[in-house]
Amino acid sequence: MERITEAIRQHGNFTEALTRSIAEFKELPVDRSVQRPRIGLVGEFYIRANRFSNQDLIRKIEALGGEVWIASVSEWFLYRNFRRGMRAKLDRQWGLWFKNLVVDQIMQKDEHQLAAAFDGFLRNSKEPSTTEVLTMASPYVHCSFEGEAIMTVGKAVDFAEKDLSGIVSVMPFTCMPGTISHAILKKVRRDFNNIPFLNMVYDGDEQATTQTRLEAFMYQAHEYMEQRRKEMKHTHT
User: Fold this and answer.
1) DSSP letter string, the chain
2) Which of 77, 80, 123, 164 is deepest in the core (most CB within 10 A)?
3) pLDDT for res 115
4) What pLDDT, on a 0 to 100 scale, did the predictor assign at position 14?
């Protein structure tokens, strides 16, 4: 983190900083003998990315034996580009549409260049495009329904299709997009073999039941992982 921060501060080579860090990560001893259930983290963009706001949710899941795959922060910025382009096209603002198109292509190029440094190192370094996420959400939410709800649903489908063992969705207290996505994700869960799902709501106060709920969820995720492993083994035999 310090190396990357310094590269940004000094306008240095960001990719080189990443490459050096990855080389050092590869030298760390890792116990791969235990298979951990992979958990997809979706939901409100800020809550899921800020560990203070989600009360260090990722560390808590890891402490219970899980491996967390979190939806990328860049997802929101690229989705904003999509919405801006869609609205400009509807309003026939072709100058704004073209400017947004150029900006979006530059941002995607930068994202792909940075993600390329992790090829062969991270299993989830390849992020689907905004259009792909919206397509995955389309059986449940139309793309004209703008906001976080549709991206939460689409990314949850992406994680389910990648055969993760559970999905956690986070939202602020009384958040309308979060409430909508929570209701829709019940249908998504049924469509994907009743994959374990947990909705976490945050209002700034530590909740006494959080640890108990996470423990119950992770137990379900372990069971689901074993069930899917047996199903895959039976299919191959």
Assistant:
1) -HHHHHHHHTT--HHHHHHHHHHHHHTS----SSPPPEEEEEESHHHHH-TTTTTSHHHHHHHTT-EEEE--THHHHHHHHHHHHHHHHHTT-HHHHHHHHHHHHHHHHHHHHHHHTTTTT-TT--PPPHHHHHHHHTTTS-TTS-SHHHHHHHHHHHHHHTT-SEEEEEEETT-HHHHHHHHHHHHHHHHTTT--EEEEEE-SS--TTHHHHHHHHHHHHHHHHHHHHHHHHHHH-
2) 164
3) 84
4) 82
In this prediction the pTM is 0.86
Residues of the chain with pLDDT under 70: 236-237
Enumerate the domain spans of the chain. Answer: 2-28+38-236
pLDDT for position 63: 94
Largest CA distance in the chain: 58
User: Tokens at residue 233, please?
Assistant: 């083994």
